[in-house]
Amino acid sequence: MIAYIIRLLKLKDFVPCLIALIPFLFIFFYLFSEANGIPENNYGLLIVQNILTSIIGAITFSNFALNNYYRSTWILLFGLLFVTLYFLKFIEKYYLYGVALSVFRISETVLYIAAYFMFYKLVIDMETSEEEKKLDDN
Fold this sequence. Notes:
There is one protein chain. The protein is mainly alpha-helical. The chain has one domain (2-133). The protein is built from five helices and no strands. Helix 3 (43-66) packs antiparallel against helix 4 (70-94). The protein is elongated, with a radius of gyration of 17 Å.
């Protein structure tokens, strides 16, 4: 998904993404370091998930900050919802262990649906604009 977003956005300058990556990594690795009850065999997977989620958040926020056009709103909403979804899932699984709160499951489902709908809207908008551009060039 990250490679597809980079290709879709035609991302060339990675310095703003690296700058935007720092706060996400800090937040997720702080939560990771303070969480109790994480099985040792899950450390590698959680580190990879933290990095990938941080990359998605960094790409979306840096793209919105640098490119102020209509489609950047879709990518920002997707990134914001996706990062929030991961954050809630992490909190529910490792900080509220043993507490069954159905409100988290409902909100995670709504965030999941909304995040991928925003991604769908972004892809449709980008593809139709590329098709219109090709038609205008002919």
